[in-house]
Design the sequence.
């Protein structure tokens, strides 16, 4: 699991809501790696518990990784 910036609420005036930082599981990162429709904008770094214990895209728990 890694911390990533993803596409969020583009109608928001806040950058933190347009491009939130969340945890994304390795499976979702691989699934969207070469996809033009990828919600993942950027990989920031390793898993960060401050962003929760689940993948923001598929809700897989960190214990399932």
Sequence:
């Amino acid at each position: 699991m890694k911390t990533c910036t993803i596409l969020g609420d583009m109608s928001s005036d806040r950058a933190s809501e347009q491009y939130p930082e969340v945890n994304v599981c390795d499976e979702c990162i691989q699934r969207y790696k070469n996809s033009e429709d990828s919600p993942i904008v950027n990989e920031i770094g390793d898993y960060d518990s401050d962003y929760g214990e689940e993948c923001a895209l598929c809700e897989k728990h960190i214990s399932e990784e």
